[in-house]
Amino acid sequence: MKKEKKSTRQMILEAADAEFLEKGYDGTTTASIAARAKVTHAMLHYYYQTKENLFEMFVQKKMALVKEAICPPARTATPGNLAEQVRYIVSHHMDFLFSHPELPKFMLKEICFNRDRLAMFAAIAHQDGNIMDVATGLKKAAEKEGLSIGFDIRTIIIEIALFNISAFISADIRSSCFGEPEEAVAAMIENRKTENTERILKMLGK
């Protein structure tokens, strides 16, 4: 019985993920999630109550993936080497987005342009100790090189995410609207890794 409940929960979560990615928050309903999961509407409400609860779990799961892409690589960079740490974070986040091509447009539309959801996203990020560790590591590396950081260093993680997401939005437009070949788009993404690294280092005063 317990196994069946877990299976039902998983089906609902997977259906919610697919619905949110395809239709966005406003276009998704608990009824459409239930239909996709092949469960009754009442069963969905029994497990998760509201669409908002499912969406928050969806955001938390994507945040966990982003954290996994950013945090371990940043810790493997040379301690105290600011340029290398930034390069690692930018590059690995880019690689993460490349392997999850549906996320950039979703983040831009559903998170960045919605004040309430952006606040929710920021609250989750601010409470995450691993992300704070990475931000603190960047600040220490900058200070070791004689740079003075006069702003909340956590905003650098947000800037990296925004710069990288914009690169994939541009890649999607160039590919779908102008028919650029995959090789050219891939080369543009690689170039953006270097450009975004330099932009972040400039923001840090380097």
Task: Provide a descriptive summary of the structure in words.
With 206 residues, the chain is mainly α. Helices cover 83% and strands 0% of the residues. The protein has ten helices and no strands. α4 (51-76) packs across α5. The longest helix is centred in the N-terminal third of the chain and has 26 residues, at 2-27. It is globular, with a radius of gyration of 19 Å. The model has no long low-confidence stretch (mean pLDDT 84).
Could you give a short description of this structure?
The chain contains ten helices and no strands.
Number of strands: 0
Counting helices, strands and paired strands, the structural category is mainly alpha
**Overall pLDDT confidence:** 84
Shape: globular
Spatial gap, N to C terminus: 59 Å
Number of helices: 10
Strand content: under 5%
* H-E string: HHHHHHHHHH
Biggest beta sheet attributes: none
Low-confidence stretches: none
Radius of gyration: 19 Å
Can you give the helix content as a percent range?
over 70%
